[in-house]
Amino acid sequence: MSGLDRELRDWVVDNRVGVLDPLFEALSYAGSFGFIWLAIAVAISGFSWSRPWLWTRVGAAILIAESVSGAVKEWIGRDRPPVADPDPAPLVDLPATFSFPSGHATVSFACATTLALAVPRLALPLYALATAISFSRVYVGVHYPLDVLAGAVLGVAIAIALRTLAASLRRSAPPMQRG
Predict the structure, then answer these.
(1) Distance (Å, rounded) from C-alpha 171 to C-alpha 164?
(2) Closest Cα to residue 108, out of 135, 139, 132, 130?
(3) How many helices (DSSP H) and strands (DSSP E) are in the chain?
(4) Which of 24, 48, 72, 153 could lock onto 136 through a cystine, CB 3.0 to 4.6 A?
(5) CA atoms of 77 and 100, how far apart (whole Å)
(6) 3-state SS, residue 71
(7) C-alpha distances in Å from residue 167, one per residue of 56, 111, 130, 161
(8) Contact (CB, 8 A) for 119 and 51
């Protein structure tokens, strides 16, 4: 599997389309630390009286996804592609962390899923953005495709776990007294 993973990464990086480089660099930077997802959540919250809490759920998803993916990176310890094969050079600065799973993909899919569960009609564009950000990490040369796939699966799992936890907490909360 890792041989195919390397071959796919090499094919993507070796067949970059120069005119698209700035787009994928921008997507890669936009996905950093989940800021784009928090901005989307704040915008949705601002336009919806029924979802003023959404930005807090997305913020929690970002923090948990970053923490979990960071812990898994340390546990697995997979080097990033340029460490094994520095040519061609990545289009963005090489992060100091390990490669597996992709933190960008974990955060993007955790946030896209959190937002899609709250606003189902936006699911397609949210997942399209998550996919574009995630793919950008392979395109710019700092991840293998399997890193991104694992991050996407982990992100969706985190969002579903958070939703399940929130529902469980709501069910177990004592009823509010009306005054």
Answers:
(1) 11
(2) 130
(3) 8, 0
(4) 24
(5) 7
(6) helix
(7) 15, 17, 25, 10
(8) yes
Q: Encode pLDDT of 41-74 as tens digits.
A: 988 887 766 676 788 889 999 999 999 999 999 9
In whole angstroms, what separates CA 177 from the centre of its chain?
A: 40
Which pLDDT tens digit goes with each residue over 102-135?
Answer: 999 999 999 999 999 999 999 999 999 999 999 9
DSSP 8-state secondary structure symbol assigned to residue 84: H
Structure tokens at 133: 């950000």
Are residues 19 and 128 in contact, defined by beta-carbon separation less than 8 angstroms?
Answer: no
* Cis upstream peptide for 88 (omega within 30°): yes
- Eight-class DSSP state of 86: -
Q: Contact at 8 Å (CB) between 45 and 52? A: yes
DSSP designation for 19: G
- The alpha-carbon radius of gyration of the chain (Å, integer) is 18
Tokens of 9: 């990464």
DSSP letter at 173? S
Contact assessment for residue 70 and residue 123, using Cβ atoms and an 8 Å cutoff: no
Within 13 Å of residue 100, how many CA atoms lie on the same side as its CB? 14
Q: Which amino acid is at 174?
A: P
- Output the CA torsion sign for 57, 37, 34, 78: positive
